[in-house]
Amino acid sequence: MPVDGDAATPDEPGDGMAAGRNPAPGGANPLPPETPKAPPAPQPATQPEPPRVEVSEPSFVGGGEVPKVASFLERMKTKAADCIVANDPAARGKMKIQFLVSLRARAEGVDVMSADDFNEEAQKCVRDAIKGGRVETPTADPTGVQFTFTFK
Q1: What sign has the CA pseudo-torsion 54, 57, 63, 66?
Q2: Are 128 and 76 within 8 A, CB to CB?
Q3: pLDDT band, residue 50 (cuts 50/70/90)
Q4: Among 33, 38, 72, 89, which has the highest number of CB atoms less than 10 A from its own CB?
Q5: Which residues partner with 112 through β-bridges?
Q6: Do 116 and 139 form a contact (C-beta atoms < 8 A)?
Q7: Alpha-carbon distance 7 to 16, whole Å?
């Protein structure tokens, strides 16, 4: 520390020189100013691994059956997995679902009966993916279909 009346030494603050520069005689600076380092390139975002989806054997409510509904549910597995990846990527477990099939041969009134720890957005996405899907005409009008998706 300089005492009153002493001149500041070059190593102390207040010497009038910009930090990080080496003064040269005559005020020339032989070293180029430091350029700020570029931030590291962002790592590519890794997409979450889509869950494996298993479908339980469907059961029917209302006295009828829906032919080939198992193939419809198999087709829905990919859409259901996409819903989980997009809305609740870490969630795994079971989602029990039911819907009605009328003579229009469409999945209607889709409802998630239970859903382990899946958030509302994931459940809604799965419902919307199934809703309106083309299935076979039921043997009784209407016929309820219940099944479980298991996400592993």
Answers
A1: positive
A2: no
A3: confident
A4: 72
A5: 97
A6: no
A7: 12
> Omega into 40 within 30° of 0, i.e. cis?
no
- 146 and 97 Cβ atoms separated by less than 8 Å: yes
CB atoms within 10 A of CB 18: 9
Looking at the DSSP bridge assignments, the partners of residue 148 are: 96
Residue positions counted in the chain:
152
Q: Which two tokens stand for residue 105?
A: 């041969």
State residue 149's pLDDT score: 98
Token code pair at residue 82: 């996409």
**76-103 tens-digit pLDDT:** 999 999 999 999 999 999 999 999 999 9
Tell me how far apart the alpha carbons of residues 97 and 115 are, in angstroms, rounded to a whole number. 9
Task: Read off φ and ψ for residue 147, nearest 5 degrees.
Answer: -160, 175
d(CA 62, CA 65): 8
Q: Where are the beta strands (DSSP E) in the chain?
A: 53-55, 59-61, 93-101, 107-114, 143-151
CA distance 96 to 127: 11
State the virtual CA torsion across 72, 75, 78, 79 in degrees, nearest 10. Answer: -50
Which two structure tokens, joined as six digits, stand for 85? Answer: 């990846």
